Fold these 2 entries.
Entry 1:
Amino acid sequence: METTMKHIPFYNTKLEGSFWGEKQRVSREVTIDAVYDRFEETKRFAALRCDLAEQERDSWSSHIFWDSDTAKWIEGAAFALEHKRDGRLEAKVDALIADMCRNQLDNGYYNSYYNIYDTHNRFKLRGEHELYCLGHIIEAAVAYYHATGKDQLLNFVERYTELVIKVFMEEGSAGFVTPGHEEIELALVKLYHTTGKEKYLKLSKFFIDNRGCNDRDLAKFYPWATPYYAQDHLPVREQTTAEGHSVRAMYLYMAMADLAREFNDESLFNACHTLFKNVTEKRMYITGGVGSSRLGEAFTVDYDMQNEKAYTETCATLALALWCRRMSQLKALGAYGDVAEQAMYNGSLSGVSIDGDSFFYENPLAVDLKNHGKNRATTDSESYPLSQRLQVFGCSCCPPNIMRFVNSIADFLYTEDNGTLYVHHYMNGTTSYEGKSIRQSTSYPVDGKVSLEATGYNKIALRVPAWCESFEASADYEMKDGYAYFSGVSKLTVDFHTEPRFVVSAPGIHENAGKTALMYGPIVYCIEGVDHEDDIFSYSVDVSAEVRTSFDSYFGLPTFTAEGYIKSANGALYSNVKDMRYEKKPLHFIPYYAMENRGETDMTVWLPMK
Amino acid sequence: METTMKHIPFYNTKLEGSFWGEKQRVSREVTIDAVYDRFEETKRFAALRCDLAEQERDSWSSHIFWDSDTAKWIEGAAFALEHKRDGRLEAKVDALIADMCRNQLDNGYYNSYYNIYDTHNRFKLRGEHELYCLGHIIEAAVAYYHATGKDQLLNFVERYTELVIKVFMEEGSAGFVTPGHEEIELALVKLYHTTGKEKYLKLSKFFIDNRGCNDRDLAKFYPWATPYYAQDHLPVREQTTAEGHSVRAMYLYMAMADLAREFNDESLFNACHTLFKNVTEKRMYITGGVGSSRLGEAFTVDYDMQNEKAYTETCATLALALWCRRMSQLKALGAYGDVAEQAMYNGSLSGVSIDGDSFFYENPLAVDLKNHGKNRATTDSESYPLSQRLQVFGCSCCPPNIMRFVNSIADFLYTEDNGTLYVHHYMNGTTSYEGKSIRQSTSYPVDGKVSLEATGYNKIALRVPAWCESFEASADYEMKDGYAYFSGVSKLTVDFHTEPRFVVSAPGIHENAGKTALMYGPIVYCIEGVDHEDDIFSYSVDVSAEVRTSFDSYFGLPTFTAEGYIKSANGALYSNVKDMRYEKKPLHFIPYYAMENRGETDMTVWLPMK
């Protein structure tokens, strides 16, 4: 298990234009302020004042998970500050941190809800997100300290974490053993790296080792949850299937991968890899979305891929990518990067609008507007994912999450191992790391051409995407586990041949039987009502006909026109096959991540094959 | 509008063997006793004693709708007695009737719930089914009186109906104007025909004319209902779309058709025909099932045909057939008979098991067992229709309904109009009616050959089923509105050529895009897991290849083998179309109505076209 692979963190890289550079520009110029303003309007920041009198006077109350929203926003802002210091932005962050520090209790405790409400229940109820919030504050503290050198929040989380060590590890005096929502485990690994203090790593390991061994008293958790919900069904090393709340699961697996590396823990790595195979071979949408069911926001069974009601929370999908990134730091296996790519370009990015100020929590693979509010007979209604992004949600975890994800996307790019540079992903930018420099020139994924210049390495390993059927390279290479290894070169050009291709899903995915989706490189495409005169659900596509390519600057990617057919309506509900007539009509495909950006409209990824 | 068409009631016909003769035999020999025993076990009959002390002692209480279950059982039993008197069965019926009569209040009121509970709420709450129950008791009384000449229950309902006339029409002293669940309106027409008393017809018209004009105070109804739920959204003559609770809707439309005939009311007929077109061109499953949503057991929007979650209650589908039968009595339009046939052979008959003792309330068009109970993370669960028939339900309206439907199926056969015999459906049997005799010899729908001998008519009109593309007849005919008119013949043979055929649904039915179903004559087919080694949802069917025919006595109908293909699984969730391999495997089709008779198994009507 022992790995000498080192991660090259995102702040060593400056992305320039191209796909992700543009996404970061929008995030910095629009998203950061937009999320800030919505959080301010919804009292998330006022809550940091922990002023009960104020809340009673104005008739609102802080929420048990609001601190995590604030913390993720701070972390995302910190990531943007790595790009460029910004006094105005730092002033906002500093003010938030000042409020938090002012309200930290003498024993180190802090939670903007439990500081003023239900104080007797601190650390008593497993479902109440205190450690989840602390985890996010830790991540924010580490990020802001790195970006600015300011250590107030870092000191704050160290004091708070001391209390957690005392209550959970030393005294065992809390109402539960492991957090009801994982997050702190991975955050503690970051805190360990920043401070060098092993006690944080040990606390993380304590939580991971104890999960699935205790906490079966669901009365202290959610009455409707089963042990699967928060991955308590088995000790983590014995878990073989992705279960329960998908964000919780992903955050757990991230920490498991982190600890596998820190402790050279083969059993943790093996559990991670087994779970990775279950997720990616049985329980993942083509968009990289995970967690198909609204009920419990959860994984269900193999091949359950309802499209219109796909839950696939933005947070879960981007966390799948982050888990895969950690797996790539454990083993250079192309599949990890392939899945990371699938999740980052599709079901993660669909969580934010192209103009950067509105968000999806759920990311369905079909929107059939006729089904929304279809039942006029009762005031009860079936639940469908929203078909238009909102600026803020009641549970608004996704907006700051996609913000911090985009601003640290270069984290995915590189690792190095004993003189070998691993290039896991393709983005246009320059990197300086420990005296070495890397320059990638590419418009990936617009096309698959990549020029690379890297000094200080004796080998360069490029992940050859699984979707790529052939590629050309300027030098000789050896293939292993999805990577092409080039020896003794510092300059390289490769061309991963990228053509639109129709894909089908495994026979077990009943919902997609007889259907196909269009992909281009890692990008999943969809069709939208706004681009078609006819009902998009009445189209079939001829997968053998030519697909024409255009480039659309709005989407920043190629768009495609394929040969479609629509059944002619003859007025009858049911007709003989042999009497049906089909009319040829072009089908216009746009990137899935850009769905529902041009008004509320029907959308589908999968459509019948003619 | 004026029609001189006369219905030839079922009790003039004796069905002999063949498809429906066999169904009636099973119903008489098994279903009648099975439903009786289950109703006895579940206290439905004990409730008729209206003994509060007994109920308190034994800790159960009667239900507001139980009288309708009992009444439908009596009516079904009465229909069987038309076939053959049976002292044992009559003794059971007589005992039930004696209990009801003994507990009728002095003012005529009777309800086994409101006789002893909440007595101050009699006729006060629109949702409480008192008039619905009375309607069914009226139908039972009329049927039992006709079958046996015994008039106790007829006297009972006349006394009760007098009270209803007083309270609803004369005093207006009830808590509402029209019933919350239609049924009494159509029953009153039967009571009028049996007694000749016009006041019953007037009460029916009062309820029909007032529906949609009052009763907007939903606080007196169900808090979750909208005016659409019980067809209160518009006066009935202005209704153009089938809305709300589908059984309520069908029972309303039946009464509207009855009154259109009784009053030569063109506006009612036109409303019925408009609603018929909406139902059959936009809102009906291929099985004749109606009411797609579990929420409110309701119609939703055009083309909403979810298959796996199809609600399509047995009661609604058989009532669609009964409504169509009434429409055929108003106008000789083949479409009415076509739809009646579609509903009776598929989504109605699927409501009872082949051995006659268990029942479906919902009749889905697909059963995908992997989805049932799929979410292990929470104790909440998604609702799916049952995948195995039960012997009795909490709300057990369907079992006695399909029982009375099957035992009066010959009601569908004939009408006559000024010397013309209309043959709307094809069943093997003999009929004597007002000195005329009719003999049909056929094994329809096993094949389409029908021999007919009818004395006393100068014209015979045969409905030519819409599914029939060509037929041969032994004499010349003229076609009009779906009927072949034969003049001056008393003996005829026709052969409606019947071949298996693949059908597709209208483009608006998104769920079936790219999919096909197999039909044979009026019979819809399905495939079941029990007949296939592979996951049935991984099959496509080649609609251009030959379909082989067998006959299976278990189903009483032909079964078919078509050429199927399954995608070879390669372990990947998503693969390029061009890399997929398909393996040819036979697909075995059985009649839909016989689904889920051989253990719990996957099932689907629609499958992708290869």
Entry 2:
Amino acid sequence: MMIIMRSNATDKQIEDVVRTVQANGLRAHLSRGIERTVIGAIGDGRPVDKDQFMYLSGVDRIVPISRPFKLASREFSPPDSVFPIDGMKIGGDKIVIIAGPCSVESRQQIIETAHAVREAGAHALRGGAFKPRTSPYSFQGMGEDGLALLAEARQATGLPIVTELMSQEQLPLVLQVADVMQVGARNMQNYSLLHAIGSSQHPVLLKRGMSATMEELLMSAEYILSHDNQRVILCERGIRTFETATRNTTDINAIPVLKSLTHLPVILDPSHSIGNWEFVTAIARAGVAAGADGLIIEVHPNQAEALSDGGQSLKPERFAELVTQVRLIAEAVGRSVAPALPQLSQAAIS
Amino acid sequence: MMIIMRSNATDKQIEDVVRTVQANGLRAHLSRGIERTVIGAIGDGRPVDKDQFMYLSGVDRIVPISRPFKLASREFSPPDSVFPIDGMKIGGDKIVIIAGPCSVESRQQIIETAHAVREAGAHALRGGAFKPRTSPYSFQGMGEDGLALLAEARQATGLPIVTELMSQEQLPLVLQVADVMQVGARNMQNYSLLHAIGSSQHPVLLKRGMSATMEELLMSAEYILSHDNQRVILCERGIRTFETATRNTTDINAIPVLKSLTHLPVILDPSHSIGNWEFVTAIARAGVAAGADGLIIEVHPNQAEALSDGGQSLKPERFAELVTQVRLIAEAVGRSVAPALPQLSQAAIS
Amino acid sequence: MMIIMRSNATDKQIEDVVRTVQANGLRAHLSRGIERTVIGAIGDGRPVDKDQFMYLSGVDRIVPISRPFKLASREFSPPDSVFPIDGMKIGGDKIVIIAGPCSVESRQQIIETAHAVREAGAHALRGGAFKPRTSPYSFQGMGEDGLALLAEARQATGLPIVTELMSQEQLPLVLQVADVMQVGARNMQNYSLLHAIGSSQHPVLLKRGMSATMEELLMSAEYILSHDNQRVILCERGIRTFETATRNTTDINAIPVLKSLTHLPVILDPSHSIGNWEFVTAIARAGVAAGADGLIIEVHPNQAEALSDGGQSLKPERFAELVTQVRLIAEAVGRSVAPALPQLSQAAIS
Amino acid sequence: MMIIMRSNATDKQIEDVVRTVQANGLRAHLSRGIERTVIGAIGDGRPVDKDQFMYLSGVDRIVPISRPFKLASREFSPPDSVFPIDGMKIGGDKIVIIAGPCSVESRQQIIETAHAVREAGAHALRGGAFKPRTSPYSFQGMGEDGLALLAEARQATGLPIVTELMSQEQLPLVLQVADVMQVGARNMQNYSLLHAIGSSQHPVLLKRGMSATMEELLMSAEYILSHDNQRVILCERGIRTFETATRNTTDINAIPVLKSLTHLPVILDPSHSIGNWEFVTAIARAGVAAGADGLIIEVHPNQAEALSDGGQSLKPERFAELVTQVRLIAEAVGRSVAPALPQLSQAAIS
């Protein structure tokens, strides 16, 4: 941590800061410039709370030197984290595609979609049983019944299930069905939930909050990792900006920058990050071109009846086209999309 | 809801949209302009999910007409909501001041601060026992022990207690001590928590999320109100922008705009919204000048030792000066700060 | 400037950085922490371009220590700058109010408004002859004819004129009429214009760009000050955020923070910063409560016919009410609104 | 334009709005809902200023129906605009790459870079002679001497020149050298400059302002198009958000969305939009994968000495690698990078 003094700081003020630094078990290291003095507070690598120094007389600013995350950092663990989730392996050369409806709405809808996305080449099925909705008057998800339908869809197709968890109470139920538990953007800093998920030792897909910095996303991952739960997938899903032509702004920069900061796999959700089905395929291509380890895509067999986020869902045939295009991009960057699951026998489908 | 068709929409597409509108139990009303056709979908005032229409061929955009919140709206309930919380009455002419440390840190700290802010004119004591911190390595609050100290502080000073609730599990504990439960910015869209708080029938201070729109804040209030829990206080606490000179950007516009949109009381947290104690008093004055019904201020007896957010805390003597200045502003806008609590006997203090 | 090395930087890389620092005429000062090395580059206070160091192998980040502005800084010139503009004195205890229509539209409109705002207590008349409009199809201002009408309004009322300059070509014309030349938000970083204005030695009202940081605003002021043109007034006019309920977000924090960073006067434009006349008075009060040295307010005698920005203009009678309220706030913060100009004789008015 | 009345608007207020609509030569069309009345104002497609209606009593909001840009719109001119600039053809299937240093710094630097980027496959040379710099103390470009060096570089390599114009005064000079005149982000709404450039009938590369919406970018293009200057290239260069880990946030969504809104070519500047050379190639790939018609890349032979933006410049060999990677992506999306210029004879190079 560097403590930058005001240009008119007195010697007395500088001494007081030095003393406080030392009282915190840190070494103080002075640089006297023409205009200002800077005091380096050098420790043993453990995080120090900068707020303790901000109040001191004569202090202008505090600049942290160490990154606040450790376990999530590339420096802590240089190679890419790769881990299997059911049959699907995430974080390596093979790009993984998760697809399905925003919400589980009916038995027919989820089973039909599961078969359709499986056939198009998806490796996992997404679908929300518990839905965080801005309005209390919007459909809030099928809850426990939705989870049962997801279990049935897994049974029918063999696809691992990615589904959202909104609170600790739902954990026992969701754990029975989810192969990956999703933490939504609105809960990225719900620390009680992060602690619970960390303890569960279950794989997690952690979405970036809508105005979270990359560092904050990594700090939220750190909460989970600090419980020694290593299977955390980070997901860029668009951030909030002044632009109104799109639902969110896809922070494509986050893909390569996060990959450089952390060893964890990074995937992109182009459906939420642009919010309009017409452009989802273009953004999915961009994500893989930028280095994403996977994609999570909204697919709905009948958008006209979708109870949530219909406007950003792809029909199954468009999703199949997206997979085809993404395969070409993956190859262009020296990777490949993970192989599609083997075809089911006719008996299994019907 | 107005459905704006693309300029090249065909008659067939327009008819399809009209049919879908009618199939949703709404009346369709066409305006054919030179360039585009607009279809009004007219209902009985119940919210309609616009996503159902966004996918239809030929549709360009959907414009909602009704506001998505009802119970929170000024139109639903024109007069200002005024409600008592313990001795303190909030939402009327009298401006209420809540003050205290970011976190409860020790018996001495909280009792001493409680007396100091009471004496300076505060009407309630704030202090966090459960603290949402960006880093898992930062102090997370004293938890249950902190709640016990808050109870003691109330006992000693008579000040009602405002304290944060981070999850449903903490609800029974927090309910025993809190006169007002605070929902922090990071949990503004933690809908499980909002439902639980709504059911509790307990007063709530709901902070705006760091990138939430005013409409989203009101929708989160609507979650609580929909449980017929009427005692919701809204709190502006700064939003996230590109500016780096301050911790957040105080959205001072939100004060008069929220007051026009809703009947609920609106208060300002100048400590978090600017993040530097030197400027807290100026922003507190601005908030009251703009029409805020109250303030929530961080005060710490000894900033040098504050375990969280020290840099934005005022010392008690500066807080007293803030109250003096705010009183003058309140009078300048034809209001007044609620009267200070009567002095305690010496016996009570020691 | 502090150069923060990566945690895995080699000794060779550190030596190379030190050599480059020295080759730039700076002293290098090493702090070796457990995780990282930080190299202070200490100079004589002249700005150094940090880009020269960013590319070097092993460098993680550069942290500037000195502020990039000098002449504008409070440290360079501690007392408040106060300067007279025609009769009006700006930057001292007395708060100055500039008012008038967005655009000059007709002789009657501008003369009538000038008399109305003068009578209500304004100290200067604003009005645009050259208008930056988002659309080439919108009214672009009356140009030279508009300037002539402004000159006439000054003649009739004695009010100094504040009017916008959009390009260097307009400078000779605008100089003949303007007492203060306004640089609009869209031109805050039009450096050719800033150089020209600097050279003119004429007073300037410099508006903050819609997504400019405070530091960038001060750097733009520095362009003007570097021509030894000292009469620069800074103006907060709202910044662009994700919020859509208001035209812009008034950055009220900028008032006290700018006042601490610079000796230049800081005023607020509540009309643009909230964009809705209903709320302009509340935000004007907030600005003065936060420490603004003045206000610039849109007033239009007949909003129904306003050719630009009608929705945020006040009618003269509402403006008079604003002045009354602002006077009370000014007194509450120990200042006062500058005295109104003496009444004109009836002969002068007609 | 739809005029949405407040829920408590009176019949009288509704009638007044209708009368005003008609007085503006528009037809009024009423939709009475349960809660609110909406008045459609239907015209002949010419833009109408909505501000005239915002002030009227009882009006809640105005929703524009027509897009404010015409000549730039895809609806006005459905096929992609393709136009030749010197040898280079832009806007069609072939992707164009513009490369070179941020600033022209010396004869050797620009000639050497020109040869290097030509050999690596670039189709045009960028280089600034006039540089908009945040600080008046930073290098402001070589000016006229820099233009002469650019002319020499074109002579030597045959590469068309893209160079920035900061003000109308520079136009005659820049026209002599530039094949494409660049309007920088800070000047996107410098309307005097846009008018001058429109009149010049010269090709333009128009960069998006750092907080401009896509619609505003198109409105600025409209300024140029309204002078019947058709050769406008739009450039996404990153927008300003709260994220601090990168210089800007690349708005990758803007690529496909702009392509759907306009017929004009859309290119990406990955160097400015992420601001760190390490990630430029990843973002360049993403841009082409998302549908960009070209790229503009910063290349500097010796970053250590770069006088501006060194940290985001690629060395020539890394740029050559970028071109190779982008070629693969172009093919993966069914396009190709425009062919490299034929090799120069050795005589020509030396």
